[in-house]
Amino acid sequence: MKRILNLEGAINLRELGGYPTKDGTTIKYNKLLRSGDISNLTTNSLNYLKKYGLKYVIDFRSNQEQQTWSDVTSDFYRIYSDPVYPLTGNGDKLAGAINHGDYSYLGLIYQSVVLDKHGQEAYRFLFERLLNNDQDHQSVLFHCAAGKDRTGIGALLILKALGVDDEIITKDYLLTNLMYQDSDEIEATLNDENGNQDINKMNMTKGDLESITSVFEAIEHYYGSFENYLDKALGIDQTKLAELKQIYTE
């Protein structure tokens, strides 16, 4: 299966299906899409997404971004405005309190977002929509402008909740770096002999992994565990987490 969907008018559009979980299951295809700007989707792209089963679009961009570069509307999906910024600022104080000089700048920003009250409200809304997406052949697309930071945080929270390993989560995050390179280079880097795209072929440094795991470390520092964070910050208790896994894994 193609992980990178090169649709006209979309930036950094990617499939999250196919990743293995620690439970021995796999994330279902045609359920989860992450993306950057989709304000220029063409008719052909819309036809593809309709067949794909797109039902819900979650827009993490600011109100100004949404007004300036509005998502293309269509009758087969509903768009939800869910700005991640502006943050309230409490996450900065919390993240700074556990930084011992070894976390990357990007890691600190991401920590601030996941610990911030407004940031948490935005991702709580995302998870509520994910629970609503409980019908077969229906999918959720969540996006920001570049599909890297606000969308990247959403993806790492979803993948972690579904039981995907940190290293795989990091490699999925790093695919954004490839997306802004030449498309032929992407194909040469990822494709196996059957034309499937395999992120295990990606090179990842120790620093890359640390920038993502530092986010989970911050969450565990303040909430005791990632599961407790899901419950207290995002409203996903054990029952809802089981529902999520039922909807999105097989």
UniProtKB/TrEMBL annotation:
UniProt cross-references to Pfam families, sorted A to Z: Y_phosphatase3 (PF13350)
E.C. numbers: 3.1.3.48
PROSITE patterns given in the database record: TYR_PHOSPHATASE_1
InterPro entries membership: Prot-tyrosine_phosphatase-like, Tyr/Ser_Pase_IphP-type, Tyr_Pase_AS
Keyword terms, alphabetized: Hydrolase
SUPFAM superfamilies reported for this sequence: (Phosphotyrosine protein) phosphatases II (SSF52799)
Gene3D superfamilies: Protein tyrosine phosphatase superfamily
GO MF entries: protein tyrosine phosphatase activity
Family: Belongs to the protein-tyrosine phosphatase family.
Protein name as it appears in the record: Protein-tyrosine-phosphatase
Lineage: Bacteria, Bacillati, Bacillota, Bacilli, Lactobacillales
